[in-house]
Amino acid sequence: MPIDTTYRSTAPEIMDDFAMEGEILRDALDKIASINQLLGGNKVTLEGVKSLIISKPKDEVIRITDIGCGNGDMLRTLADYANKQGLHFILKGIDANRYTINHAQSLSKNYPNITYACSDIFDDLSKTEPCDIMLCTLTLHHFKDEEIIDLLENFKNSAAVGIVINDLQRSAVAYYLFKALCYVFRLNDMSREDGLVSILRGFKRADLLKYSKQLKLKSSSIKWKWAFRYQWIIKTI
User: Fold this and answer.
1) Which homologous superfamily is 22-235 in?
2) Which of 39, 110, 163, 172 supports an S-S bond with 227, CB 3.0-4.6 Å?
């Protein structure tokens, strides 16, 4: 029976358990980062950041916060880019899982401009720390529609320059291609099952346009990117 992608799935992901820890989680985090690199996912977010700071002086300090940072791979990519370009990025990763944060910290020991915090962003949205740019890379699909609106309303008020969202397209083609990818990368059961659920919890362009309307955004762009994801850039200036 063909997979139905008409509506966003409400099925839970195993990784949504913030108390989860151990080798299986570590392996899943690192495999997700590797696949994201291979398929150009980090480039999608980096391009979004570059578009938001294009008119900024090179010596201006840019504060970037990554929500749902995983093993910190995106932050390290940004730190490497800033170092090569002579830019001044202050980077912070936030994740609700303590084990994940500890793992990210261990991988980022050589990056003095990256810090991490273990926090559930929904515990108190009013206490979100201000920054210039908020990132959501493969994170937004974990939330329900109403939670997404609450989260992005908060981000609009917290990010002085803009928001970069990089997330999955809900597509039957993507679903079946990921199944094949699982064999190539020998993903563990959790990574395989969560990956398939993630795609079904992902977005169609109409979903993002609906959110844009609800949020009354004045300046935003939605672009399809390889591999089966959307880059959604919101300017808050």
Assistant:
1) Vaccinia Virus protein VP39 (3.40.50.150)
2) 39
